[in-house]
Predict the 3D structure of the following.
Amino acid sequence: MKNLILLGPPGAGKGTIAKRLAAELGYLHLSTGDILREEVARGSELGKKAKAYMDAGELVPDELILAMVKERVAGKDGILFDGFPRTLAQARGLEEIAPVQLVLLLELDRDTVVRRLSARRVCPQCGALYNLITSPPKEDERCDSCGEKLIQREDDRPEVIARRFQVYMRDSVPLVDYYQGKGILVRLDAARPPGEVYAAALHAIGDDRP
Ligand code: AP5
């Protein structure tokens, strides 16, 4: 199976698509944001180092991220990188770790990013994603799957969302040219409804099915 990257601004829907591709096609979903949040929750050394950066909407240093990714992907394929790489240094570091055959760029404007992230809720128990506007839970702010009370991510406060978007424009947008130059970038309109974005992602992946 191919190794894929999901690139795009905060809130573009990378996690939403990645969870479905992993469930339906068997990709290994590797979200650096999810791993870091687990490390913070466990109070590990990495989590302690990462927390202040994450709370402020800044990037965790490249060397910490590359070491974290390397230990999780050794010898595997069919990896779906979600939220990684985020800098040119990470992209170059990834080349030493695993080949990448396709980069899906989820394009979304800043106003939609702010609207979506302000309404995002997550299940702290099973990780299910909701949106109070576009995909609300059936029962008031409780997870449809496990019934747990939904929470809002610490970094989904308006001032942190704004900073995350700025950081994306400064550090991650150069990756668009980088992967376009390699001829492996496909652009998707992430403003369309989730089912349509997913269908476009499947089309771009082609027949890489188990
Ligand atoms: P991370 O967790 O990776 O956050 P992010 O990239 O900012 O992305 P999000 O998880 O916010 O959004 P998403 O694109 O996955 O959207 P989602 O599917 O949830 O990183 C967090 C922090 O960790 C960073 O700020 C940094 O500090 C650190 N970090 C992580 N990786 C790092 C790295 N490589 N290097 C350095 N630091 C790193 O959808 C959002 C909402 O929209 C949901 O409510 C969803 O239901 C809804 N939605 C999704 N798709 C649609 C649609 N098509 N239409 C309508 N609503 C939709």
About this structure: The longest strand covers residues 102-107. The longest helix spans residues 158-172. Residues 8, 10-16, 32-33, 36, 53-54, 57-60, 65, 83-84, 86, 90, 116-117, 120, 129-131, 134-135, 155, 164, 190, 193-194, 197 surround BIS(adenosine)-5'-pentaphosphate (CB under 6 Å). The beta strands are 4-7, 28-31, 79-82, 102-107, 120-122, 129-131, 185-189.
